[in-house]
Every structure is written in C-alpha cells, then in structure tokens.
Amino acid sequence: MSAAFVTFDDVSLAYDAAGNAIEDINLSIHEGEFVAFVGPSGCGKSTFMKLCTGLHAPTTGAVRVDGEPVTGPLKISGMAFQNANLLPWRTTLDNVLLPLEIVKPYRHQFRKRREEFVGWARKLLKTVGLEGYEEQYPWQLSGGMQQRASICRALIHQPRLLMLDEPFGALDAFTREELWCVLRDLWEAQRFTVVLVTHDLREAAFLADTVYIMSRRPGRVIERREIELPRPRALETTYRKPFIDLVQELRAQIGEVRST
Amino acid sequence: MLKLAKCAALNKSPQHLMKGALMTKNNQLIERLAPWIAVVALVVIWEVTVRVFDVPSFIFPSALETAQALVTYSGPIAMHSWQTFWTTLIGFGLGVAVGLVLGFIIGSSRFLYNACYPLLVGFNAIPKVAFVPILVVWFGIGSVPAILTAFLICFFPIVVNVATGLATLEPEMEDVLRVLGARRIDVLLKVGLPRSLPYFFASLKVAITLAFVGTVVSETVASNQGIGYLMMSAGSQMRMGLVFAGLLVISAMAMVMYELFAQLEKRMTGWAHRGQNR
C-alpha cells in the first residue's frame, strides 16, 4: 500500500461552546483505500467529512491530505449525500457536467472541450446503468436513479477522494444493494479513495477495507477494524456465515457504544 | 361575486360526480368555459338587480348603460387607458429591475438579508397613497408620480421573492459546489439564481396587478390624464356609466397582463411545476 493519503493528528472540532463535536481523532487513510465510518446518530460523522474536505477547519490538531495541511475546500474531492440534490432545471447529463463547469482547470476549458466532457459523462452514466436517461430531468427518475446520477456527478472530475454521506440511506433495500455493487465496480475500476459515512453495518462491511466505529458525541474513534474478506466481493457473500458473524461483532460494538 | 362562484361550483359538481371518466372531454370543455359562464352570469345579475330595484343610474348604472358609455366615450377612454397602461409598464419595469438587483444583493448575503428585511417590511407597511403628495411636491402632477407610485408598490414582492429564493438554498447543495472550489458567485449563478426564478416569475404576476393599483391611485389625486383621472372627473359630474366603464377597462388590462405573466412563468420555469404534476 502507498503512503498515508489522509491523516488526522489529534483533531477536535467544536462548533460552539457546547463542547466538541468530534474529539482526538487520529487516523490515516491510504490512497485508494475504502473506509467506512459507522456510529450512533449524532456522533459527528458528517463533521468528519467536512474536516476531511476542508469545508471546516479543526479547532485543534491538523488534517493533512496528500502531505499538505488542509486550509480550504479540497478540489480533489467529490461529494454525494443522502439526498441526490440534483438541480431540477438541468437534465441528468447537465447535472453530471456541473462540476466540470466549476472545478479548475476544467472550468476554463468547458466550452472548448464540451464534446469530450459530454463523452466522459455519457460513459460514466452508462457504467452506472443510466444509459438512455441522459436527457431526462431529475424528477423523471426514480430515487435510485437520481442517486446513481448524484454519484456520477461526484466522480465526473476524476476526484482522488470520494466522500459519501449516507448516500444510500433513503433507498429501499433492493435498490441499495444494487447500488453497493455499482459503487464497488466503480471503485474496483478506478481505485479512488473513498470515505463512506453510513448507519448500515452490512453496507460498511461489504464495501470497505477498513471500518471505523465512532462513539457518541463527542465523537471519537473507538475501534478500527480491517475487513479481510477477499475481493472482488460478490453480493452473495453478505448472506454467508463469515460475513454475518462479522456484522454481528460490529453490531455488538455499536450496542456497547449506545448503552454507555 | 362570492355567491356567483358558489353557483358555478354547484352547477359543475354534479356532472363531475355522475358521468365520470367517460365524459372527461365534456368536462374539459365545461372547465374551459366556466370563467366565461361566470362573467356572463355576473353581468346578468348586475343588469337584473339594477332593473328590479330601479336604482338610479347616477348611483349605480346598469350593465347596459356602462356598455353604452364604453362605446360612446371609446375615444377618450382609449386615450386615458393608453396613458395608464404605459405609465404602469414603466413603473413595473423599474420595479422589476430594482427588485431583481436588490433581491439578488439581499438574498446573496445572510448579513444583508437579516439587516434589510425588517426595513423592507416596514417600508412595505406604509400605504403607498401616502407617498403621492410627497411625489407631487417633488415632481409636480402628471406621469412621474404615477410611474413612481406604481414602482414603489410593485417592487416589494419582487425583492422578497428573489431574496427568499436565494436565501433558502440547500446547504448540502452549497457543500457539493464549495468542495469543488466554487466561489460564492459561482454558487449564486449556477444554483441560486435559476432556483429563485420560479419565485421571481410568481412575483411578477402579483407585481403587475399592484402596479396598476399604484398608477390609478396616483392618477386620481395627482394627474390630469389616465383612467384614474377620467374616473375621478366623471364621478364628480355624476356620470357613473363612464366611471364603471373605467373600472372595467382597468380590470381588463390587469387581467391581460396577469395572464401574460402567468404564461411566461409556465414557459420559463416549467421544471418547477411539472415536478409536482407527476
């Protein structure tokens, strides 16, 4: 594995005087690693994402990405949330193209290279199974399809770091599992670094290399767990014994956190 | 008026209930004709009431007398309506321009939003008629006070709507863009402005009718031109047919403009409405 890509040194963050949202976070993420954060609600998982992408500065400690201290929004990252947040006045294709209109250096090349960029977007949409829906508007898509488009939007500018904040939380169980596989395949193909925040232990165990379990507020990392299931992982693994045991162990740890 | 609406509703509903899906075409026709039926009914009730109670025409002219006045004085009415029409449009145009800019500025900053909102509300609470005497002192009587009154009365809903549209941007959407290195202005232009367009176009419909109110109010006290002036002078001569004709003309102009902006809204921001229809 390569050197640490994201490192947190004794990072704490307090939004206000009420106390820290997260506290004493020490961890490092390798380039190309898939990490998942799980924990009870309100444990500062989303805060962690904001620190990671530079949307918020830590109160104490230091966050480094790619060897550099994070001082402002990181342009090498893409984000997707529980709500797809697609712009209703843009077609799916134009929604996916949005980051290229903003992120440097593409924004200055957008007019000249538009054809090429549209090609990227179409290819990406095809890999997530949205071929033929490029000209549809978001409200014409189902929830799962919107989320696929949202992930495409997060990946179109080829970010090195993909941040996912409960991206599958609002979907039904079958669609969710389908999208796990979509994400797995995208990641296997491109090997960007992924930080996935989730409530779903099966999701974390199935997708991630490393699962971090966080305590209640103030959020601390109380357990780091490497998932050693062989890759590529098939969805069927999630219904087999070793996987189920693993999830149950994780569940037990979360249970302890909740009861303390 | 209210009674009328009820009547129309009563006439329509049994058909809806009885014939159902088979007669949808018929229902559509009835739905399209409904406003015209209501207008005709109102005119008939008006005419009949005046005749039955034998109301003298200098108090309340009948529909027929009003129509006669409309024809007899069509020349002066057209001239004065044109005056009212263009002053209103200029006032409205100013209102749109100022409303958009001010709304954009206020909506783009939290600080300004909080700072200016109470001021705007306070300003809006002043009855705009109260400005007319001031405007007359400043600009004399004529078109200018009418234009400015129309402007003052109609820019507020535009400011508020544009500002609200911008200020209620989802924070997550902002994060998505900020992470890409978007500047504030990028967020406003790519997301904020298109997002506030439905609010903007909705406010235009309200603003244009208010602009007519402003112009006419100003004309009644501070002008010797325009429908407001015409009604005022006709009223002082007890020519009520002409006064009512003026009323009809204002109402027709405002309705046409309202419909124009309603159509424009539909065309420009269809995405905001189509989403709800599905």
Keywords, please?
heterodimer, A: 260 residues, alpha/beta, Rossmann fold, 2 domains, six-stranded mixed β-sheet, four-stranded antiparallel β-sheet, 37% helix, B: 278 residues, mainly alpha, MetI-like fold, 12 helices, 85% helix, disordered N terminus
If you had to describe this structure to a student in words, what would you say it looks like?
The complex is a heterodimer of chains A (260) and B (278). With 260 residues, chain A is an alpha/beta fold. In chain A, 37% of the residues lie in helices and 22% in strands. In chain A, strands 6-7-8-3-9-10 form a 6-stranded mixed beta sheet, with helices on both faces. Chain B has 278 residues and is mostly helical. Chain B folds into 2 domains: 2-54, no CATH class; 65-277, Orthogonal Bundle (MetI-like fold), CATH 1.10.3720.10. Chain B is built from 12 helices and no strands. Chain B has helices at 2-19, 24-52, 63-72, 74-108, 110-125, 131-139, 143-167, 171-178, 184-222, 227-236, 240-268, 270-277.
**N to C succession of SSEs of chain B:** HHHHHHHHHHHH
Number of domains of chain A: 2
Distance between the termini of chain A: 36 Å
Low-confidence parts of chain B lasting 5 or more residues at pLDDT below 50?
1-19
- For CATH, the homologous superfamily of the largest domain in chain A is named as P-loop containing nucleotide triphosphate hydrolases
Q: What number of domains of chain B? A: 2
Instruction: Tell me the CATH topology of the largest domain in chain A.
Output: Rossmann fold
CATH fold label of the largest domain in chain B: MetI-like fold
What are the secondary-structure elements of chain A, in order, as H or E? Answer: EEEHEEEHHHHEHEHEEH
Shape of chain A: globular
Helix/strand-derived category of chain B reads mainly alpha
Low-confidence parts of chain A = none
| Beginning-to-end CA distance, first to last residue of chain B | 34 Å
Specify the structural class of chain A. Answer: alpha/beta
Strand line-up of the largest beta sheet of chain A = 6-7-8-3-9-10
